[in-house]
């Protein structure tokens, strides 16, 4: 009981003293957020970018990314993509074809690897998850739609 009395006595003494606020995450990398409460002004953005460059050695590329690349990532609407003056319509169409070709190659590679693994390890369709068969049907339907659009595009 004596220790509880000592604790209560210390608490009473500390009530009258001013205690500095302590942070246990202050020195941990990743918890320092100097712009967490910035108002988003242009000056804050410039200071944030400068801080990012000085502390990491990398550059902030968000605004420097082309509208075409943002469109490929699904970050830009068709209207903004269409009116982007950095590329002509001809360049946009040809670049789109290149990007489609690259992504289809990646998809084909993933499918090839999956089929090879399925064959080598003897996985049969009965071992698929319930959602897998549904997804395969959806992928097949989507590929048919894409194939029809590609044919129309080539006309």
What structural keywords apply?
6 helices; 155 residues; flat; mainly alpha
Number of strands: 0
| Average residue pLDDT | 77
Number of helices: 6
β-strand percent reads under 5%
Through-space gap between termini: 92 Å
Our count of domains comes out at 2
The 3D shape can be described as flat
The description of the largest β-sheet is: none
**Helix-strand pattern:** HHHHHH
Low-confidence stretches: none
Rg of Cα set? 29 Å
Which structural class matches the secondary elements?
Answer: mainly alpha
Q: Give the % helix.
A: 55-70%
Quick take:
The chain contains six helices and no strands.
Can you walk through the features of this model?
- This protein is mostly helical.
- The chain has helices at 2-16, 42-56, 67-72, 78-83, 89-121, 130-154.
- The model has no long low-confidence stretch (mean pLDDT 77).
Secondary structure: elements and pairs:
Blueprint (H helix, E strand, L loop, with lengths): L1 H15 L25 H15 L10 H6 L5 H6 L5 H33 L8 H25 L1
């Amino acid at each position: 009981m004596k220790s509880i009395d000592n604790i209560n006595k210390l608490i009473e003494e500390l009530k009258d003293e001013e205690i500095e606020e302590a942070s246990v995450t202050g020195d941990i990398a990743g918890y320092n957020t100097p712009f967490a409460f910035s108002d988003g002004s242009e000056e804050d953005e410039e200071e944030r970018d400068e801080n990012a460059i000085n502390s990491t050695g990398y550059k902030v590329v968000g605004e420097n990314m082309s509208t075409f690349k943002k469109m490929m990532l699904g970050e830009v609407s068709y209207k903004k993509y269409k009116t982007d003056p950095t590329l002509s319509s001809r360049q946009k169409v040809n670049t789109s074809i290149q990007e489609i070709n690259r992504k289809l190659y990646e998809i084909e590679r993933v499918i090839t690897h999956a089929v090879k693994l399925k064959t080598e390890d003897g996985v049969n369709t009965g071992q698929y998850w319930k959602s897998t068969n549904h997804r395969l049907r959806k992928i097949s339907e989507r590929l048919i739609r894409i194939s029809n659009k590609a044919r129309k595009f080539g006309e």
